Amino acid sequence: MKDMIIETIKNLFSKPATVKYPFEPSPTPPNYRGLIVYKEELCIFCTKCELVCPPGAIRFTYEEDGSKKYHYNPYLCIYCGECVRACPKPGCLTQVEDVAPPATKETKPNWDAVEVEAEESKKRWLAARKKKKS
């Protein structure tokens, strides 16, 4: 009992062994893989990133004119980097050491609606393409 009291008093006056989160940011671990950064001007819209993304955090929607639009959900992403490795255009997709900002109702994308629209737009685009060939 006496040893416990002495150890308790020592701990009251010693420097804490933990990080002072949230008052100080946690240090970035080595080899940290962060957010995916997309540069539309470099994209060739091959959709390879969408195909290799394990959680489905990247989706493309197809427009009537055949163009595609990139959608990314940082809250679903597991930061594996497969999309960066699969991208044939250097610099189009990169990983930075930033983390996703906290999700709020305003910033959190309605991902269910994006996924539904992506599937429906792809079906419409394929049907229109098939109709043109006929």
TrEMBL record:
Keywords: 4Fe-4S, Cell membrane, Iron, Iron-sulfur, Membrane, Metal-binding, NAD, Quinone, Repeat, Translocase, Ubiquinone
Origin: domain of life: Bacteria
Pfam families on file: Fer4_7
Span of domain 4Fe-4S ferredoxin-type: 34-63, 68-98
The protein, known as: NADH-quinone oxidoreductase subunit I
The organism's taxonomic lineage, starting at the top: Bacteria, Pseudomonadati, Aquificota, Aquificia, Desulfurobacteriales
